[in-house]
Structures are given as structure tokens and as C-alpha cells.
Design brief:
The chain is an alpha+beta fold. Helix content is 30%, strand content 27%. Strands 16-17-15-2-23 form a five-stranded mixed beta sheet. A hairpin with a 2-residue loop joins strand 4 and strand 5. Helix 7 runs parallel beside helix 10 and helix 10 packs parallel to helix 12. The relative contact order is 0.14. The chain binds shikimate-3-phosphate (S3P). The site of shikimate-3-phosphate has 12 residues, from helix 1 and helix 5.
Length: 426
């Protein structure tokens, strides 16, 4: 059980580990490429380690030296048949993105995951990959473990995504990298665009939709990558600094990709003082420094179109909303139920622990009323973002709070407690 005590000051500067989404993709593109690539500031979370372990089993060489990761990729069509199942651990991004690559290989592979990942929906990647001719056998309920068989007949598709999902989009694009003709993915509501930005894919817009094209021409070459600090990790520190009076916190080199900055926009619209300095681009990806000041917040209406942009930040956003003027309400966010935990249910259960009036909907929830329990014991539900949300919330409660199974924070940020210690005073 982890205990958290009320803090009174947030000050100083942090440089956080690399963005998880960009880190996964840097590893994957390096492994596809023929030769040596390097990655600076790679995420040190378990999820990215899962991606690395899968590609090691496919024959890639991955070495870490002084904060730099050196990857010797196999080149087109040269992965070796793994001797055992690939383990995606807790990582949906690993399982879904690698599906696009495994579906077009000339050998059989098996992918498995932990208990949480084995419950998450895989139909969304199986369907388009089968339309491309992939032969995939999933477990009951279209879940992991999944088997991928060689197919003689892999074809390009033009596919409109039924759910806004960067993981599904990326799985199709990764399969499309192996084909001469053009595969197209069509999005109604934009999801994070790291795959297309990092591979420099052609993107067009028509009738309010985004169309991304890919072919073998876009197959990656060895490169030197830099992962900017993870904005989804930064979000926990941003909210903490906003909630504590007279705070001034600097977060350096944060990823400011416009498909990820919704959290900054929403918090600014709620009255949060967040300054962006030194904004620049490296390999197509934006980054900059954030300066955050303690602020008085008020709740606002959060529109449907921004939901995919803030999907991973909704847990911590709700904690900001709890301390803001007015009721916090989120709707049209049913995807939260398909994350590392059912996040709607996990959030509602922890808010009920505080004695709040919570209305749970199929696609969101509303928080109303005052905190009545001043000795809360929260559950992480084995979900890193739920654990960090209620850790931050505990730090602003008069009597702090406790958290069960806090260790899952290592999925995205193993150094969370040390980082907190560096910038907080009691
Ligand atoms: C991710 C996409 C999102 C996000 C996840 C990372 C990615 O998932 O929630 O943490 O790196 O592509 P969905 O594609 O399922 O929305």
C-alpha cells in the first residue's frame, strides 16, 4: 500500500522520459529498417520494453548505452521466425501495431499478453488485416493470444476507421508498408498521428475526413530518433501544479504534437495558466517547454471532437475537474472502457470512495458534491493512469490518501515517485 501526504508547494523543473507512443514507433521503425538506428530519451516504461522484447524475438539487436538505445534492424522481409510466443505484456500499442507487421510475414507467430491485455478488444485490428488477406486466429471473444499465419494473398485496402484509434490506423499502415500499391486509411475524427508524421506519409483531406496513404516506398531507413518528453506523463504534473496555490513548475522538452495537446487546451480553457516556450520541431514532431502556475479552475463543456486527442488524459483531467468550479462531466468517451482497465468504472469507483455523488454513464460520468471521506483508500485496478491520477489527487487532500497496487505506474513511468519528490514540499 502506497501512502501520499498533502503537499503545500510545487516548484522547480523536470525533464520527463520519452513519449510512449513515439518510443514504440521509434523502436518498431528501427527494427524494420536495414541497419543501425539510435533513439534518444526512449521511454523507460514496461510497455516499450514489451515492444523491444517482441522484436528481439524476431531477430533484432537492441543495446542500451548511456541513455542511448542502439537498434540493428533486419530490413525488408528479413525478420526471423520466433521460437516462442511474443509477449506484449500490458501494452495494447505493442499488440495492435505488431499485428500489422506479423500479418504479412512468411512465418507463423503467436502474440500473448497479460491478464488485462488478454481482455482488450482485438477485433478492431483483425477485421482490416483480414480484409487485406491476413490469416489471424484469435482466442474466444476476439482477444489475445492470437496466431498469425503466412498468407499468399495480401492486398491493399482502402479502409475507413469505425472507431477513432491510432493503434488500428497504425496496424494497417504498418501492413501497407509491405505492399507495392497504395493502402489508404480514412479517419472521420483525427487520432494521434505519430505513425504518419514519423514515416512522412502523404496525408490529404476531403469532405472533413483525413486520408493517409502508404506503400513500400515509405518503408523506413535507419535513422536517429529523439523521443520528446511524454505529454501524457506530463499531464499528471501539470494538473498537480495547477491545483497547488503559488506553484511554478517547468517541464522541459514536452511533446507538443497537435494531436496530443488537447489536454493543454482544455486546462487553459478551464483557467489554467500554462505557458509554452521554446516550441520547435525535431523529425516532424513538435516539442517545447511548459511553465505551469497554480490557478483557479472552472469546469467547461468538453466537445466530442477533442475526445481522441485527450483520451489518455481524461483520468487526470477529471481530478482537475473535481477541484474546479461547477460539476465535472465527460461524455462520448466510451473508449475509456477498453483501456488498461475499464477507466469509467475505475474512476467512478474511486470517486465514490471519496463520498462524492457520481453518475456513471455508458460513455462517461459526472462528479457532483463534496468530498466526505477524509481517509480514502484508492484502487489502481492495475492501471498506471488510474494509479497516478489518485496519487496526484491524494497530494492535494488535507489528510492525503492511500493506494493499493501502485506498482503498475512502471507501465509508463517507473520514476513517478522520485519525480514527485523533486518538485514538491510538504
Ligand atoms: C496509442 C493510441 C491510443 C492510446 C494509447 C496509445 C498509440 O489508443 O490510448 O495509449 O500509441 O497509438 P487507441 O488507438 O486505442 O485509441
Amino acid at each position: 500500500m502506497q501512502e501520499f501526504y498533502k503537499i503545500n508547494k510545487v516548484a522547480g523543473e523536470l525533464t520527463l522520459p520519452g513519449d510512449k507512443s513515439i518510443s514504440h514507433r521509434s523502436v518498431i521503425f528501427s527494427c524494420l529498417a536495414d541497419g543501425v538506428s539510435t533513439i534518444k530519451n526512449l521511454s523507460n516504461g514496461e510497455d516499450v520494453k514489451s515492444t523491444m522484447s517482441c522484436f528481439k524475438k524476431l531477430g533484432c539487436k537492441i543495446e542500451q548505452q548511456d541513455g542511448l538505445v542502439k537498434i540493428t534492424g533486419k530490413g525488408f522481409g528479413n525478420f526471423t521466425e520466433p521460437k516462442e510466443a511474443l509477449d506484449a505484456g500490458n501494452s495494447g500499442t505493442t499488440a495492435r501495431l505488431i499485428s500489422g507487421i506479423l500479418a504479412v510475414q512468411k512465418f507463423k507467430t503467436v502474440v500473448a499478453g497479460d491478464e488485462s491485455l488478454s481482455k482488450r478488444p482485438m477485433k478492431r485490428v483483425i477485421e482490416p488485416l483480414e480484409l487485406m488477406g491476413g490469416k489471424i486466429k484469435a482466442s474466444e471473444g476476439m482477444t489475445l493470444p492470437m496466431e498469425y499465419y503466412p498468407s499468399e494473398n495480401i492486398n491493399v485496402i482502402s479502409y475507413e476507421l469505425p472507431v477513432a484509434s491510432a493503434q488500428v490506423k497504425s496496424a494497417i499502415l504498418l501492413a501497407g508498408l509491405h505492399l507495392e500499391a497504395e493502402t489508404k486509411v480514412i479517419e472521420k475524427i483525427p487520432s494521434r498521428n505519430h505513425t504518419e508524421v514519423m514515416l512522412n506519409l502523404p496525408v490529404t483531406h476531403s469532405e472533413g475526413k483525413t486520408i493517409i496513404s502508404v506503400s513500400k516506398k515509405n518503408y523506413p531507413s535507419p535513422a536517429d530518433y529523439l523521443a520528446p518528453s511524454d505529454i501524457s506523463t506530463a499531464a499528471f504534473f501539470i494538473v498537480l501544479a495547477l491545483l497547488v496555490k503559488d506553484s511554478r513548475l517547468t517541464l522541459k522538452n514536452v511533446s507538443l504534437n497537435e494531436t496530443r495537446t488537447g489536454i493543454i487546451k482544455v486546462l487553459q480553457a478551464m483557467g489554467g495558466k500554462i505557458e509554452i516556450l521554446n516550441q520547435r520541431k525535431i523529425s516532424g514532431e513538435s516539442l517545447g517547454d511548459l511553465v505551469i502556475y497554480g490557478s483557479r479552475l472552472k469546469n467547461i463543456t468538453i466537445g466530442e471532437e477533442i475526445i481522441p486527442n485527450i483520451i489518455d488524459e481524461i483520468p487526470i483531467l477529471s481530478a482537475a475537474g473535481l477541484f474546479a468550479e461547477g460539476d465535472f462531466i465527460i461524455t462520448k468517451a466510451k473508449e475509456l472502457r477498453a483501456k488498461e482497465s475499464d477507466r469509467i468504472s475505475a474512476l467512478c469507483s474511486n470517486y465514490k470512495e471519496l463520498g462524492l455523488d457520481v453518475e456513471e454513464y455508458e460513455d462517461g460520468f459526472l462528479l457532483h458534491g463534496k468530498i466526505k471521506n477524509n481517509k480514502p483508500v484508492f484502487e489502481s485496478f492495475g492501471d498506471h493512469r488510474i494509479a497516478m491520477t489518485f496519487a496526484i489527487l491524494s497530494l492535494v487532500l488535507d489528510n492525503g490518501g492511500k493506494m493499493n497496487s501502485f506498482g503498475c505506474v512502471s507501465i509508463s513511468n517507473p520514476d513517478f515517485l522520485q519525480q514527485l519528490q523533486k518538485i514538491t514540499r510538504q
